[in-house]
Specification:
Blueprint lengths: L5 E6 L5 H10 L4 E6 L8 H13 L5 E4 L4 H6 L5 E6 L1 H7 L5 H17 L3 E7 L10 H20 L2 E6 L2 E4 H4 L16
Parallel strand pairs: 1-5, 1-6, 2-3, 2-4, 4-5
Antiparallel strand pairs: 6-7
Helix pairs in contact: 4-6, 5-6
Protein name: Adenosylcobinamide kinase
Catalytic activity: adenosylcob(III)inamide phosphate + GTP + H(+) = adenosylcob(III)inamide-GDP + diphosphate; adenosylcob(III)inamide + GTP = adenosylcob(III)inamide phosphate + GDP + H(+); adenosylcob(III)inamide + ATP = adenosylcob(III)inamide phosphate + ADP + H(+)
Pathway: Cofactor biosynthesis; adenosylcobalamin biosynthesis; adenosylcobalamin from cob(II)yrinate a,c-diamide: step 5/7; Cofactor biosynthesis; adenosylcobalamin biosynthesis; adenosylcobalamin from cob(II)yrinate a,c-diamide: step 6/7
């Protein structure tokens, strides 16, 4: 981790991505600050159980910061000497999903700028979506589309990108070829 500035860990639900990110943070040889993006819903017992499971896995010497909305500002405020573990992008995105397209574009640009200018090490966890059926309602499609855009843009600026599935982590930067947005996703056009 010492030579890596920005690491993206992505994958489906319950794949082991948070555990892999926590493992990387623990190997960073730096003080770790865990950024929890979840809003607290005390009346939701199942949600509280999930939060407690995350808390119990983390070492007691890790500091926790709650940043459900202004993630860029949280990143900018961190000293060079730490490893910042952000978990998760999907939860953060859900908190601001009601932003109109213009504001979302500014929010995304501000976040990317904060990540590229940060002096600390950053490990960020993000959920993969859209591997199945297109959501049948507009807000679901907005979440899926924005999450895909967010992961793709963070992946492009990351030093390492891991896909975690079924408990196994694959280093996509070492194994894959980045598809630039200028290349049509459906292949070359035929005459």
């Amino acid at each position: 981790m010492d030579n890596r500035h920005l690491v993206l860990v992505t994958g489906p639900a319950r794949s082991g991505k948070s555990e892999w990110a926590e493992n990387l943070a623990g190997q960073s040889n730096r003080s770790v600050i865990y950024v929890a993006t979840a809003a607290d819903y005390p009346e939701d017992e199942e949600w509280q159980t999930r939060i407690q499971a995350h808390q119990q896995r983390r070492p007691t010497n890790w500091q926790t910061i709650h940043a459900p909305m202004d993630l860029a500002k949280t990143i900018q405020a961190q000293p060079k000497s730490i490893c910042l573990l952000i978990d998760s992008l999907g939860t953060w995105l859900a908190n601001i999903l009601d932003q109109e397209a213009e504001l979302w574009a500014v929010t995304l640009e501000t976040l990317l700028k904060a990540m590229t200018q940060a002096e600390c090490q950053i490990i960020v966890v993000g959920e993969e979506t859209g591997w199945g059926v297109v959501p049948g309602y507009p807000l679901g499609r907005r979440f899926r589309d924005r999450m895909g855009e967010l992961l793709r843009q963070i992946g492009a600026i990351s030093d390492q990108v891991y896909l975690v599935s079924a408990g196994y982590a694959l280093n996509l930067k070492a194994l894959g070829i980045y598809v630039t947005p200028m290349v049509p996703l459906d292949g070359p056009k035929r005459d």
